[in-house]
Design brief:
Layout lengths: L7 H11 L1 H39 L3 E5 L3 H10 L7 E2 L1 H7 L4 E11 L12 E5 L7 H5 L11 E4 L10 E4 L2 E8 L10 E5 H10 L9 E2 L1 E6 L5 H11 L3 E5 H44 L1 H9 L4 H31 L3 H8 L8 H31 L3 H6 L3
Parallel strand pairs: 4-8, 5-7
Antiparallel strand pairs: 1-10, 1-11, 2-9, 3-4, 3-10, 5-8, 6-7
Length: about 400
Amino acid sequence: MQKINLNMGALSLKNLAAKPARTVCLVVVAAILAFILFGGSIIAFNLQQGLATITKRFGADLMVVPAGAADRAQTLLLRGDPNYFYFSSALTDSVAKMEGVIQVSPQFYFASLAESECCDTSVQLIAFDPDTDFVVQPWIAEKYNEKVADGQVVVGSRITLRANGSIKLFGREYFAAAQLSPSASGFDTSIFMTMNTMRGLVADAGMKNIDDNMISAVLARTDPAANPSVIALNIRDENEGVEVVVSQGIFGRIAAALSGFVKYIQIFSVALWVLAVVVLAAVFSGIIHERKKEFALLRIVGATQKRLVGIVLSESALASIAGGAAGILLASIFIFPFANLISVRLELPYLEASVTSIMALVLLSLVITTLSGPLASLYSALKISKAETYFTMREGE
């Protein structure tokens, strides 16, 4: 007589393989759960990380721009769409004298052209004043410890350089001193340089209507005890023809939109988890009912109640692991290659997570999915383990 192997793992695998349709059903439910859990978690995490990074990178409380340019300035900041607008550099001193303003620095915006003889690509060009800048240089210092020299450029994380580390702008090659870390903002597709470098570049572009006394924006840092919105109002009252963008307002709106999106993901994930557990419980209830005589036979050949419960839980765990792995893999295929598209569609800062964070989310999603199967099958497993063997075998006679 052949000896029956009562090893839980071996029996569970054989049972799953013996009923492929049933197994596929369990795996699919688990895969859908893992897909939503991991996909939703990674998108929410990337959005939160993007908002935190862009808020830190901007570094200014106020952005003073010409009247009518506020929307374009925000678009430049958030998406990096090439823009330019100008007013007199005299505004720098005027803003610096305002009560509550503790630091100011001008910036100059220009746009390159996507023409092979002119430039390698169409990007936003941003010039800063090395003597007063408090926004760009702290960020550059993370990658480049020396002062950016005239004639050099620093490029955003999504700018593609030539093989020799340079980029062509208006017929001249500029060597990149550094490439910045991702910021989930328009800075990722921008090129930074000193004011002197920008003046030479504007001359190469033949822009005779732009002189050295023009700037595009004045960035201001305010006293922490002061209200930036009140200072912005005072700047508008004191200086005709300007608008003031309050960074608190920009990032506050983004944070509100992000909070709503994350809450939606959380609610949807919890609802799906509950639904998945209910569906799995119903499926296991039907499966266990069909297998009553199989379990009764196992009791006859020596399986204990504890062993029967273990076999059922082991089967559900194995199916959940397989489904969880498939769901996470599928979510990764849909999310990671299309990070830029997701950012554009959501119109929110989106910064991809580090490998460590991704692995942590993978592990968390897999654990939740794996535990869902045994939890859903626990009641049915306990019920069948307590069934009377004699009556179960005689049932239907």
